[in-house]
Amino acid sequence: MTGVPASAAGGSGAKPVRGGKLGTAAVNQASLWNIANILTMVRLLLVPGFVLLLFHDGGYDPVWRAFAWAAFAVAMITDLFDGHLARAYNLVTDFGKIADPIADKAIMGAALVSLSVLGDLPWWITGVILARELGITLMRFWVIRHAVIPASRGGKLKTLAQGTAAGMYVLVLTGPLATLRFWVMMVAVVLTVVTGLDYVRQAVVLRRRGIAAERTAAAERTAEALRGTAGTAADAGPAAEAVAGAKDLRAAEARDAAEAER
């Protein structure tokens, strides 16, 4: 006995306990405020800034549109790095999984809609691109229970084409450059439609595979249950037939999936 309270002696008093809780909270907060998430947040903040710059002074001032282009370019560049950094340095968080695709759609959607409002970009182009992006997002949720649709090279090329074309439309261009940006946008639209159809095909195949795997697993569990409860050789017959049926079902579903891919 020293006569000194435990809290004053650095023992197990209330202050160290509170400090421990604060330390845990600080660690959790630090895991959220990583470089990948910060880049995503910057991209989200650039969306309203880009719109304000684009529409400043009526939306037709070349200088302000150049500033808007700079904001758009920074947003698109951060899109190239945040996901890579998150995966490379194990910085993936729930916030990033949700915020990153939202930021991607927000900056591109803001650019397309704003340009159409200003009369620089036909509304049908904006409609096609936004419908595709929304449709693929919903499609991912449709199959997420069974599998994740991976990003393809075509999808990445589509994003590059969209960003380049939209950026060229943000700038005040004339002559050959104005003609060039139209054709770049047409390439972006074609890639948007083609990759969208490919994602639909992948989603259908993955969903079929997932459903087939679930049915096969259920059939095998039933067969194993029958086998386990079979007490005599006579009772083992239905179990063996169930196992064979499950294997045949798996083989048939594998053939169907292969044909669907072709």
Describe it.
With 262 residues, the chain is mainly alpha-helical. The protein starts with 13 loop residues before the first helix and ends with a helix. The protein contains 8 helices and no strands. It is 80% helix and 0% strand. Helix 2 runs parallel beside helix 4. It is elongated and about 80 Å long.
Quick rundown:
The chain has 262 residues and is an all-alpha fold. The chain has helices at residues 14-32, 35-55, 62-88, 94-117, 123-143, 153-170, 176-229, 236-261. Pfam families: CDP-OH_P_transf (PF01066).
Q: What's the alpha carbon Rg, rounded to whole Å?
A: 28 Å
Give the overall silhouette.
Answer: elongated
Number of helices: 8
Which regions have little confidence, pLDDT < 50, spanning 5+ residues? 1-30
Q: Percent range for helical residues?
A: over 70%
Number of strands: 0
User: Which sequence of SSEs, written as H and E, runs from N to C?
Assistant: HHHHHHHH
* Fraction in beta strands: under 5%
Strand pairing plus helix content: what structural class?
mainly alpha
Q: How would a crystallographer describe the biggest sheet?
A: none
Determine the N-to-C terminus distance.
Answer: 81 Å
Catalytic activity: a CDP-1,2-diacyl-sn-glycerol + sn-glycerol 3-phosphate = a 1,2-diacyl-sn-glycero-3-phospho-(1'-sn-glycero-3'-phosphate) + CMP + H(+)
GO molecular function, one term: CDP-diacylglycerol-glycerol-3-phosphate 3-phosphatidyltransferase activity
Subcellular location: Cell membrane
Transmembrane segments: 32-55, 62-81, 121-143, 155-174, 180-200
